[in-house]
Amino acid sequence: xxxxxxxxxxxxxxxxxxxxxxxxxxxxxxxxALRCRGSSVPLRWPVxxxxxxxxxxxxxxxxxATAALRDSGCMFxxxxxxxxxxxxxxxxxxxxxxxxxxxxxxxxxKGHDFAEMFDVAGNGxxxxxxxxxxxxxxxxxxVFAAPVFRSFLIxxxxxxxxxxxxxxxxxxxxxxxxVELEDVFMRFSLDVSYAVVFAADxxxxxxxxxxxxxxxxxxxxxxxxxxxxxxxxxxxxxxxLLRWLNVGIERRFAEAKAxxxxxxxxxxxxxxxxxxxxxxxxxxxxxxxYMAWPRDPAMTDRQRDGFLRDAAVGYMIAAKDLVASALxxxxxxxxxxxxxxxxxxxxxxxxxxxxxxxxxxAVVFDSDTLRSATYLHAAVLExxxxxxxAPFEEKEARADDVLPDGxxxxxxxxxxxxxxxxxxxxxIWGDDCREYRPERWxxxxxxxxxxxxxxxxxxxxxxxxxxxxxxxxxxxxIAAAAIIYxxxxxxxxxxxxEPSDSVVLHTKNGLMVKVKRREAA
Length: 521
Fold this sequence. Notes:
Elements: H1 2-35, H2 51-56, H3 61-71, E1 75-78, E2 88-91, H4 94-103, E3 108-109, H5 111-117, H6 130-145, H7 147-175, E4 179-180, H8 181-198, H9 216-233, H10 236-245, H11 248-273, H12 286-291, H13 301-336, H14 338-350, E5 356-357, E6 363-364, H15 374-386, E7 392-397, E8 401-402, E9 408-409, E10 414-418, H16 419-422, H17 426-429, H18 469-486, E11 487-491, E12 512-517
Parallel strand pairs: 2-10
Antiparallel strand pairs: 1-2, 3-7, 4-12, 5-6, 7-10, 8-9, 11-12
């Protein structure tokens, strides 16, 4: 009877206990809010951690994170909800970037979580760690340095610019209709990367396909990008449950991977049956270069095909989105800073005699001609500083470590390097860091200034620095120069352009522009 009485007393007092707990949590939350009032640094709330910071800043998370890093001295720890995990260190400190990505590189890798989230890339270089990474990077470095591949890639960009990009924009200028330029660049980049990998034309940007939906292969790459972003922003248990149930975005992702595999494995089989002839202008595509690589005797035929598939898909996903993003933000900057465009155009006009016509009066510049266009180079770098295509880089500590500022990092800690914020913090780039000013990249003699990769990390830093940096910049300049010289691009009145919360820095609402032929403008 005594026990029953005690139990009854507990039940009767339960509302009071619950009320007391709620009061305690409310007072703790109020105390936190008052203490941090006026600061952009996320509050750590009871139970939910810093999740309210994410929810309240959806749509402009990158700018919110930049403000938080600026107020916190370039580093803070993000705490996820209780029992869910999701804690990680956020930083934009160049010293931490150099320490983790270069000086103490062996102590940090992408981790199992990243490889699982990005499983569409298979076991390729994007996901590789340790021994596998070193071996694959050697292959990629050799391929990218080969004159036949470099020549094929650069000529492919110029060819696709002349036969697809310029005619498409010329058609839009003649029709006088608004163009969503980011979509144009996505299609153009897809066509270029597809041709570089397979030595075949997809032509998703042809004038005849202007209003057509994406081809299945292109649609599959787009869904893959959306799914990877989804996996980054929700707890791992959520997307793994959706994958197990095969519903929602995870179902579409599985279907997209099946489309990619079907395309790539079919092309590998065709190439095995009928290899492309080697010679001038032939055999320089990525797939041919990889197939010519000496085979590992320990590899089975299936493993070899998987190796080729991962190389092809990894390049396609990386090149397509990153180049499209870089071109989008470059032209947004040029639209909003016409004096920069005028300076670039003046230089291109002086180089006109060395350029090639691509039909009518349209002009496309080759890579050699553009070597002296240093202001265009500076304009591209400045756009990448403010709008890096990959706005953050993620690593996981393989062992306990201490960062240069004394912050202790335990094994398993995830670190998020906010590359987007690095270009917008006064302590890194000066008081004018948020201004688009290509002149900061030029010396008094007009040469392009070098900036260390731990300060300008748009192409990563340390041993994982992008092997395709110079090729990527060359490709951007070929496409940009052709557009600037032949057309005037103007933002549609009232159209707001903002970055989206995504793994690749796309826009939220696209880039709506009017295109006019330069002679008409």
